[in-house]
Amino acid sequence: MSSPASSTPGRPLRKDAERNRRRVLEAAREVFAARGLTASLDDIAHHAGVGVGTVYRRFPDKEQLIDALFEDRVAELQGVAEEGLALDDPWEGLVHFLIRSNELQAADRGLKDAVLGGAEGCTRVAHARSRISPLVARLLARAQAAGAVRADADITDLVLAQIAIGAVAEATSEVSPDTWRRFVTLILDGLRTGGTEFPAPPLDDAQLEQTLVAASAAALRRRR
């Protein structure tokens, strides 16, 4: 029979491994923000204060590290949408999602660059949409059912709004980092019941897909 000490020999190591993994991910966020995709795994290991072997054991290449960072962000955005759905007031739920999700994105432009610039950029974006869009659609439908949001607003309008807010946040980040919040207010006012009739129909799924690909390509060109 093994002694109590020998029956659980791996637990401290598992805690250390998870702690090191989090240190590597946080360091990667900061390094990508400062240096972009030219940063190497060696750079990230140095910034994290861990051995290079620690990074390579967890993330054999940069794409796997970006995947892990992006998965964290998708989980955060899912949580934000679920928080919005948990609020009693449907309008406040939608407002919560739009503001909090853009706070996360505005504070982490380096991760956006890494996600779009990686070899799997389009796949990552599609994966995120598949997980988050159903929750956002529920936020929108709930607010419409409550009479707080105009009936002709579409989920694609919210996707395009996120692109527009992100562009404003990026363009003003050096001169006025909070300007995107004014833009969110403009968009929210446009979503309220009683607004001016839309002069064009919403995008269909194929048009939205083309738009997202074009927006990603344009964002990468601006960074080169």
Can you describe this structure in just a few lines?
76% of the residues lie in helices and 0% in strands. It is built from eleven helices and no strands.
Description:
The chain has 224 residues and is mainly α. Helices cover 76% and strands 0% of the residues. It contains eleven helices and no strands. The protein has helices at 4-7, 11-35, 41-48, 52-58, 62-86, 90-106, 109-117, 121-145, 155-172, 179-191, 205-223. Helix 3 packs across helix 4 (52-58). The protein is elongated. Residues 1-13 have low confidence and may be disordered.
Give the topology, please:
Elements: H1 4-7, H2 11-35, H3 41-48, H4 52-58, H5 62-86, H6 90-106, H7 109-117, H8 121-145, H9 155-172, H10 179-191, H11 205-223
Helix pairs in contact: 2-3, 2-7, 3-4, 5-6, 5-8, 6-8, 6-9, 6-10, 7-8, 9-10
From the alpha carbons, calculate the radius of gyration and give it in angstroms. Answer: 21 Å
Morphology: elongated
- Percentage of residues in strands: under 5%
Helicity, as a percent range: over 70%
**Uncertain segments of ≥5 residues (pLDDT<50)?**
1-13
First CA to last CA: what distance?
Answer: 63 Å
Q: What does the largest sheet look like?
A: none
Task: Count every helix, treating DSSP H or I runs of 4 or more residues as helices.
Answer: 11
Order of helices and strands: HHHHHHHHHHH
Give me the secondary-structure category: mainly alpha
Average pLDDT taken over every residue = 84
Give the number of DSSP strands.
Answer: 0
